[in-house]
Amino acid sequence: MKKSIFSEVSSLEARKLVDELRPDDGVDPREEAKRRRKERREAGSGQAHGVHKHEQFLAQARLAIDTALRTAATPVLNRLTVREVVQEGGSLVVVVTPMEGDAQVDLVEATRAVQHAIPMLRRELAAEITRKETPNLKVVVLPREARKTDG
Amino acid sequence: MKGEGTSRAEVRQWLAEARVPPKVQQNIDRLADSDDVQRVVVLPDVHLGRLVNNGCVAATVDLVYPQAGGSDIGCGFSAVRFNTSADVLKEDERARTVIRQLHGLVPALKQSSVQAVPASLRDRSLSDPALAKESERDGAWQFGTLGSGNHFVEFQEEEAGALWLMVHSGSRALGQLITRFHLERATRSRTGLLFLDGRSALGQAYLNDMDWAVCYASLNRLAIMARVVEFFDAAFGITAEESSYLDSPHNFARRERHFGRELIVHRKSANSAGLNERNLIAGSMGSPSFIVEGLGLEESLCSSSHGAGRVMSRTEACQRISPRDLKRQLGAVKYDDRQLARLCDEAPGAYRDIRKVMQAQHDLVRRRARLNPVLNFKFPDTRRT
Predict the structure, then answer these.
(1) What would the DSSP string read from start to end of B268-284?
(2) Pick the CATH number of A51-141 from 3.30.300.20, 3.40.109.10, 3.30.110.10, 3.10.20.440
């Protein structure tokens, strides 16, 4: 088809939008507005915002605990890294593994050291986050080759 | 052409009157006496311009005179035919609808949002970063705007009855900016006109930027037409016949071959009229425009008039022509009557009779079609209102 002489200068972007077939095409705009309102109600107001804030909090917790482990006075803790932080009720489950390339870590010794260090880790976490109550921590030490909890 | 050892260029005139006014003659003499000017052609729509008249053509070998190409670089006419009869706009109610829409579709000075500048223009570059920056800012804000004064959107009726759309606009603020930028770097000739050497980097830069502005002006007219054509399609189901599209700039300088040599031909309010070249010559708000074909007369540097040409200055027209006179002169032509009192300087009486102009240049162009005005839309000159 021959290109129109006006194609270069016409409001192309607007035209593309007009040409695009969308699910609301041909629907009474009032009905469409009702449908969108209902959809928003069902999704729960501000839910997307909440999800984002929660993810942000978990990332903050992960960074704070990881830094605490790296700077801890116990040498075995320095060889561990946080792999994942998951919310479980009012607590945070922290999955810890030996650092990459460090296969010599004794997991039993590491677990003992970590359990001993929980109050210290919670203190460090409290200093980094802005929450009225610092969540309890459940720390799990896993071998490096273990799969992530989300699959 | 200028002979060896002669300081004055040859002047050829095609006039609609017996002689030109003294101030116009002074400008012709100034141009003819300027360095390197080989030939000056005076066309029948000649009228007084600042330092160089409108309706004049000058040819040089090496030097470029920005003032001889006009500051609104690339200013010109574009036209396209619709697939319908002009009768559709003869109804008052429909004409009013169109005028109302035109106010929204075609702003005078600035768009309400930044416009996408066409890719073909973005691919070309301006010679200086300062100009490039301005082109990105002002160029985008002004793209698709008409301007004021004698710039217009006009619907016309061809003799056979078809409806035409004609647009008169230019390169908006950018053309003037480019001209000013290069004039600051130009050399003064003995007659006071400023020039750049076309062989130097400065001259090359000016020719490059002028080319850019000519392209911008053409696309600006096309953008205006696109908006009007889209509106006609959506509102009335009337489509444009794109094969009829014509674009006719009348303010530019370019290299052309005449008399067996390459010359830089400057046209200020003058059309190119090469053999069989189709162009547009516009009348005033109330008089016809013409589609013409050039006859390629080398004596005229293959040029013709661009329009009718003013016979009164804007100030004089405002003093001598009343809104009632303007209304009478416009006859059946539709216009925005709210602007009537502010359009007296654009009255048909302030321009020459286009028929006399066409007669005076019968050996330069052949008439192909006559387009009578049906609806004229223009913004009053902002310097005056």
Answers:
(1) ESEEE--TT-EEEEB--
(2) 3.30.300.20
